[in-house]
Amino acid sequence: MERTPHCNFAKMGRHRLFKPQSIFWLALCWLAIAAFPPLPWMSGVGLDASWIWGLNLAAQSNLLFGRDIGFTYGPLGFLNQPIIPLTPAAPFVTYVMGMYAAWLLVLYRIRDHRVFALFAAFVYVSLAIWLWDMYEVLMIGLAVCAIIGRRSRLPVVILAFMTGAAPLLRLHQLVAGVALLAFALWWQRDSRRELWWRSAPLVAIASFTVLWKASGQDFAYLAPWLRSSFEIVNGYTEAMALPGPMWQVATGIVSLAVAVGLALWIAPATVVPVAVVGFLLFKHAFVRQDAHAAPFHFKMAALALLLWAPAIGLARKEAAAKTFAILMLVLGLFISVPIFPYIQENLQDRLTLRYPRHFIPGYLDFETFVAGRAEGRKQEMLPSILDNNAKLAIGNATVDVLPNQIDVIGANGLRWSPRPVFQSYSAYTPYLDAWNAAHYRNDTKAPGKLLVHWQFIDGRHMLLDDPLTWREALLRYRYQQDVSIGADPKWGLLLERKPVPDQFQPVTSQTAEVPWDQWIDVPLRGDREHELVTMSVHVESTWTGKAIRQVLRGTAMFFEVRYEDGMQAVFRAVRANLASGAIVTPLPRYLEEVRPLFNGEWKRVPDIVKIRFQTNSPQRFEPVLHVRFEKLRRIVPGGLGN
Known about the structure:
By secondary structure, the protein is α+β, with helices and mostly antiparallel strands. The chain is about 50% helix and about 15% strand. A five-stranded mixed β-sheet has the order 2-1-3-5-4. The chain has a four-stranded antiparallel β-sheet with strand order 6-13-8-11. Strands 7-12-9-10 form a four-stranded antiparallel β-sheet. The longest helix has 25 residues. The protein starts with 8 loop residues before the first helix and ends in a 7-residue tail after the last strand.
């Protein structure tokens, strides 16, 4: 009798090639590779590129933060925002690969919880498009290691190092780092007698100290830099406020509230880091509710790991945390795809490893990549190349650009002498504006030439963004010639510094109390050849307005003007800086009317005859604005013309 072969299915199962553990490791490694950092590919022209050029040029020129530069991105901020080939290759590659290695360590430390680890890896992949936001996500991951792995020495020490380094990259990351580090140390408090636990705060302090000095900075200017950064952060929430769909804000508020509620229920120790980091993410997303809103829920999904980790093994709590984390990921895709349609393609290319296959060789032979980008950069920068006459007129003189386009400095290899807040739209407060104006008064540091171009941000008239700085420019610079750039024959003006500055002498003034949305006449119209009129406006927020500004964002203020030729225009204003005394007559409407301001032909610019102030939310401000008009006469030394 023929025997049927016996099959031992249990034995075959033990020798299967694709065991659950093997599938898990394959998936985790696949996602880890999919999250490989992108190669730097920032476009070299435009508004955003300009402040990135500023960061990189500041580092290249060894400018001191707090003395020469005021910006919330610190002395190492150029590592988050590289301009290839300007950004030094070695520090950038070390920074990016260091973050990636730390993330691989996080995945390895949480490997015993498979679903949790795979979700964390996928969240990191979904955020990989926003390289500059990965620092915060990585700090969250390191804090999670403190929950999952008892005595997580290395992750906590790395978190301490990153906390100290955070302000040199982006100041607000320091707040998130401190909250997460304090939480991680508290969670590991049973190790407090061990040296590594006690030394963690010292590691943070030491990393800041060493990196601050290594980046060429001076501790004498640390306090001024922190002060200027605080001013920028405080002013940004109103001056750059941009509303968007309220349903997005509602989802953000609900998401943050649910996260805090879950933290109280699951593990009260997580409340502080979840609330602090979540609020920072919320403000970053919804003060300027444009593309900033896109990654919010992705980052909230990363923050949800702090809720999920302590809930592992607790059925109801883990289910709630897991549901919240997945919901945040789904909302992230739902909200971000209409804003960035290419996110789907980016995610697909990462999950199929198309991007990593391209990125990995680039980092392995970074010099070749840089050489290739250098050639491509030449083509990208063509729209920022000055005409030959302008280059000859500038020569070897130092240059600054008003109001914003710093990419022109980098594209043409000019000697930059920047205002401390080198983008005018970021000089949100009188303190910052006065700091910039003082730079133009300094005969030693002030630029020999000024490039002026016509550019509005959010409808804000550029002369009203930093009025004290423009008044100094009017006194100390004169028109030299028109400037064309790229394909734009009427890009701007070139100004030269006067041997002896003019002066403004007050003539008379007049005050008024003005309600919102009411036309008023502009008084003190006098000699249009030698006199101008400034306007100082003081308007206070109500308690409601102050609360909404701190919790969400400020409210835009506008003023509508009527010129003597009948033309009307509406400009957005930086409320804080209007108190400094902005020039309102003459107030140019286009570049051709800026030229007369610097060649002394003020009468060629029509006067403003009426003004009214407007806001979309008058209940957030006091009902009466205090307005002071002042007439100033220009005094030319020696009686010479301008």
